[in-house]
Amino acid sequence: MFKEIDNLFFESDKILSSLSPEEHTLLNSYTRPLNFKEGQLIFYENGVPTGVFIIKKGKVKIFKTGIYGKEQIFYIYKEGDLFGYHALLANEKYEDASQTIEDCEILFINKDDFQTLLEKIPSLKHLLIQNMSHEFGVLVNTITILAQKTLRARLALYLLKLYDTYHDKTTNTSIINLPREDLANIIGTARESLGRLLKQFKEEKLISVNKREIELIDIQKLRAIANS
Amino acid sequence: MFKEIDNLFFESDKILSSLSPEEHTLLNSYTRPLNFKEGQLIFYENGVPTGVFIIKKGKVKIFKTGIYGKEQIFYIYKEGDLFGYHALLANEKYEDASQTIEDCEILFINKDDFQTLLEKIPSLKHLLIQNMSHEFGVLVNTITILAQKTLRARLALYLLKLYDTYHDKTTNTSIINLPREDLANIIGTARESLGRLLKQFKEEKLISVNKREIELIDIQKLRAIANS
DNA sequence: CGTTACCTTGATAACCGTCAACAGACGTGG
DNA sequence: CCACGTCTGTTGACGGTTATCAAGGTAACG
């Protein structure tokens, strides 16, 4: 049976990892390293695209500003991901904004160089198409979840997703660490409602909470809740 | 100021209208006409893509089946639109389903022919990329709307969108005509809640309702509600 | 030590989903 | 032409969920 959790990932790291070593080297030769502190904006709504970004280290939230300035976060990119190419390819202004949620090392490829790369690496265009098609499915899935799932199910679902996003291969641990407000803006609720629900999850021994750090304890039960 | 209503359209008709007359003729030579009765499925979730579709006449809803079989509709395609290419290009199964909501004349291009066309019409691939990038913005907009807007604002917003979808150039009129359940599944609510709200809109003289047909009366006020 | 940002908790009301009953519309077949 | 079942839409009652307002607590940082 299909589980929504299986289709919450953009897989934007696949674009780069699918390239050959030579292509990878070529691509790297066009990048320029940038350092961002936590909380810095990388691009913003209605801004004009100047290039694309690859995350070397750190995490970046992608969001849109809705009613009364409330952010709607719809993705968190992590190490290895390529992002920021939609508006560039569509020749439109940015529809969304991106901001670091940790200190980040980012590789930047400017617009012209990216065009050059699209010509020099024939498979790149196809990889982008594949990835965008996949993203389409993810966003459609997100829409269905937001429109139909209860808050409780949404929280469980996105905790499981973030569990993956925050997984550290070297220590094999996963500690979700982001402001309550951001988490609220992912699952589409108010800060206070989120807090109460987290408390409840804690009492049910589904998660453990230490300040802003969240660890998952009972993944089986969380999965059951996410699918309800 | 940015209005959400401005970014609710996929513009999938632009793909075809951007082609030269020669390219258009070439594309047409690969199509096969199909007739669908109202309510027929064109493709369905987890199905394997066999080609792409162009609407000659009629309307098609695109949706995903969520909890307890409840449909989440996220787009309605109309005359001139090309659709069904995402899963094909991504080499994945259909993530969504499509079903006619009127009797339709559809032009079908099978998978291999579509590949041939992608090679013969160089600009086609780029047009698809552009369109998908644009769609990304539309879906993100939809997510923000669903997560943040009140039911009342969502109804006003989508009535305005449907006003456009159902606009008839020859008569210059616009009569929204679809089952209550479908409308409910667009704005993400229950049939009953939708019914009550429509009644309210009618009492406020914002719309007129005749059986399942809805006409907009006070577009200015609807816009104001949509932006609240 | 004070300021600021972030988080928790409580009280309240509104919104909306669900259940249930009913009324029309429609098409089919007798 | 009528009887019937089905599909669709309407209305009412109800309760749960969750947003909002307000206050107070705690951590972080200079």
Can you lay out the helices and strands and say which pair or pack?
The structure is a homodimer.
Chain A: H1 13-17, H2 21-29, E1 32-36, E2 41-43, E3 51-57, E4 60-65, E5 71-77, E6 82-83, H3 86-90, E7 97-100, E8 104-110, H4 111-120, H5 122-148, H6 151-165, E9 167-168, E10 173-174, E11 176-177, H7 180-187, H8 191-203, E12 207-210, E13 213-216, H9 219-226
Antiparallel strand pairs in A: 1-8, 2-7, 3-6, 3-8, 4-5, 4-7, 9-10, 11-13, 12-13
Helix pairs in contact in A: 4-5, 6-9, 7-8
The first copy, chain A, binds a DNA duplex (30 and 30 nucleotides) through α8.
What report would you give on this structure?
- Chain A is α+β, with helices and mostly antiparallel strands.
- Helices cover 44% and strands 24% of the residues of chain A.
- Chain A contains nine helices and 13 strands.
- Chain A has helices at 13-17, 21-29, 86-90, 111-120, 122-148, 151-165, 180-187, 191-203, 219-226, and strands spanning 32-36, 41-43, 51-57, 60-65, 71-77, 82-83, 97-100, 104-110, 167-168, 173-174, 176-177, 207-210, 213-216.
- In chain A, helix 6 crosses helix 9 (219-226) and helix 7 crosses helix 8 (191-203).
- The two termini of chain A are 13 Å apart.
- Chain A binds chain B through residues 2, 7, 45-46, 64, 66-67, 70, 72, 74, 85-92, 95-96, 125, 128-137, 139-149, 188, and chain B through 2, 7, 46, 64, 66-67, 70, 72, 74, 85-87, 89-92, 95-96, 125, 128-137, 139-149, 188.
- The structure holds a DNA duplex (30 and 30 nucleotides).
